[in-house]
Amino acid sequence: MNRLSTTSWAAAPRARAARSADGSSTTQDLPPSIRWRLEDIDLSAIDHARIADNEALFYLLVSASFIESGSDLYTRNLVDHYADHPPIAVWLRDHWEHEELQHGRAFAAYVQAAWPEFPWQTAFNSFIAEYGALCTTEALEDDRTLELAARCVVETGTTSYYQTLRTFSDEPVLQTLLGHIRADEVSHYKHFLAYFKQLRAARPVARWRVARVLARRLQEIRESDSDIALRHVWAHKGRLFPHHAARVEDVAARLYPLVSDRLPAQQAVRMLLKPMALPHWLEARLERPLAALARRVLDA
User: Fold this and answer.
1) Distance CA 76, CA 93 (A)
2) Considering its fold, how many domains does the chain have in total?
3) What is the pTM for the complete model shown?
4) pLDDT, tens digit, for every residue of 231-285?
5) Which helix or strand (DSSP H or E) is residue 17 part of?
6) In this structure, what CATH number is given to the domain that contains residue 194?
7) At what angle do helices 144-165 and 172-202 cross, to 10 degrees?
8) How many CB atoms lie within 10 A of CB 127?
9) Among the four 63, 184, 191, 279, which has the fewest Cβ within 10 Å?
10) Within-domain flag for 41
11) Alpha helices, DSSP H only, in 203-276?
């Protein structure tokens, strides 16, 4: 692994991420800037009556728990990717990585408390065996500036997704948890966008190259992360919701339109357009048609 040979790297407080004995992610020595802690979420207060029979929420939330719980596979790659940019690397390692790992722990803990009969660890192990193969340094953009634009896409997706998930249930503990995680994702987006602007100012990149990266990363999110996670949730659901769908394709056909109907599409489009640095009048004209296009892509 690449290491930074700078004083700031060596002096920064090191938080260690590791797999626990059962394969879940754990974090220690969290940075003082972290805004909330899983330990402060009272999972015993979950109102089970509001979620137990919510099949859509089950699939969407467990899928999110898988992806977030595997975040240590790609966070380390990204930290190493920016070894030559100390301010970015330090923020990635000492802030972003820890918050992503906490998201995974939080979602996993909620799912296991809400649907204890679901074999979360077994299903996650199955998911990570497939998903982990995608989390390689080769999947990152060679151009560091363009990879930051790609990260804006990912953070836009998670921000919008967690806002959408809040519309599927008014369960109070879940509402609190999703609110915390969405706020983290908004902060991550702002950091990635700011770093993108800094690198682009030093070495400009053409808008068409930025647009190509944004489009490609959007498609990858739709075709890999979500679909892989959903397949593994389906494969291990056991007797949960046995009469609601005969195939995982049936679940997907029902879920994706539900999500797209509730997606804050115009907000997502505004976030996606920021790396393009378009004139404000052009951004305003593009928001509505691009929001409609985003919904069609999600439904496909």
Assistant:
1) 8
2) 1
3) 0.83
4) 999 999 988 887 666 788 888 888 888 888 898 888 888 898 999 988 888 888 8
5) strand 17-19
6) 1.10.620.20
7) 160
8) 25
9) 279
10) no
11) 207-220, 226-235, 248-262, 265-273
